[in-house]
Design a protein that fits this description.
- There is one protein chain.
- Helix 2 packs across helix 3 (about 40-50).
- The longest helix is centred in the N-terminal third of the chain and has 11 residues, at about 15-25.
- With about 190 residues, the protein is α+β, with helices and mostly antiparallel strands.
- It contains seven helices and seven strands.
- It has one domain (about 5-189): Gcn5-related N-acetyltransferase (GNAT) (Aminopeptidase, 3-Layer(aba) Sandwich).
- Helix 6 (about 125-135) links the parallel strand 4 (about 110-115) and strand 5.
- About 35% of the residues are buried.
- About 30% of the residues lie in helices and about 25% in strands.
- A seven-stranded mixed beta sheet has the order 1-2-3-4-5-7-6, sandwiched between helices.
- It comes from Rubellimicrobium roseum.
- Pfam families: Acetyltransf_7.
- Keywords: Transferase.
Length: about 190
């Protein structure tokens, strides 16, 4: 397998939008729907957020996995060095409040916001390669990510790779339909 990792370009935003949504269990689409003007497409709201330079899901923080020039996965990783005030300013919806509370507990870590592999390419080691790549951004407090309690695949993946549970927060759903009940902060020193 000829897997290549490269920095994302703004042209990758349409690929990243569904990846971001999947990584957070559909919550982004729910929020984008609430932000969209009447008659507007929520996916377009998501696209604008990924195309921006200063959101937590900006293409500028993303890396793309490719096999023979086909995009097959992505990781969005950045240092969590924001102050509580800076993080609180990113809250666009009550759904994000538990996320921000958990992120505050992971300060000075490399935070994996999104790590996902396209459906037909899972189980081939691509996620592991993306995680190994993300390690180069490791902070003084190691690495962190947040996953939903019902996402057994992600919990298993991160557990196999040395991440352990550090904290939990109840989900705020506000109309969002999900089988989960809690967000789990996972850390690796």
């Amino acid at each position: 397998m000829d897997l290549q990792l490269r920095p994302a370009q703004i042209e990758d935003a349409p690929f990243l939008v569904p990846m971001v949504n999947e990584a957070d269990g559909g919550m982004p689409f729910h929020i984008w729907s609430s932000l969209a003007l009447p008659g507007a497409d929520p996916w377009e709201v998501g696209l604008r957020r990924v195309q921006s330079d200063d959101t937590p899901v900006s293409w500028r923080m993303a890396w793309i996995a490719e096999i023979w020039n086909e995009r097959v996965g992505a990781v969005i990783v950045h240092q969590l060095a924001e102050t509580p005030e800076q993080l609180e300013a990113t809250i666009m919806s009550p759904l994000w409040v538990p996320f921000v509370e958990l992120e505050l507990q992971a300060s000075d870590s490399a935070y994996i916001k999104t790590l996902t592999v396209a459906e037909g390419f899972r189980g081939q080691g691509i996620g592991t390669r993306l995680l190994r790549f993300a390690e180069r951004f490791r902070g003084p407090e190691g690495m962190s990510t947040i996953v939903a309690d019902h996402d057994r695949r992600s919990l298993s993946f991160f557990g196999r790779n040395g991440f352990v549970e550090a904290a939990r927060r109840p989900m705020v759903k506000d109309g969002w339909q999900t089988p989960g009940t809690e967000w789990i902060l996972l850390r690796r020193p």
